[in-house]
Write the structure tokens for this entry.
Amino acid sequence: QVHLVESGGGLVQTGGSLRLSCAASGSIFSLSFMGWYRQAPGKQRELVATISSVSSGATTNYADSVKGRFSISRDNAKNTVYLQMNSLRPEDTAVYYCRLATPTFQSWGQGTQVTVSS
């Protein structure tokens, strides 16, 4: 079983930055697809950014709403995926979740709150 622990959330003003981290247990991290998702109150969970496994080229993908402002990266030596968030807006306020996936398995973290004040 893989456990994911997110950290780095908090309260920030509009235009500010935060970096989220997601640390994974186990030994399959480097083989896994990783993603960040978010869920605002009263809304469905949505994809923010993803990064494929190293063997798949560590290809990144972003929601249109965060392109040019957010950046996803991974450090396989630390079993950690990051989400650098710049130029934050009030509409970025949500609980941010980390997801790990392989063809046969997936796991979600418990989430970390990001609040952007106007």
Notes: The mean pLDDT is 96. Residues 22 and 42 are 24 Å apart (CA to CA).
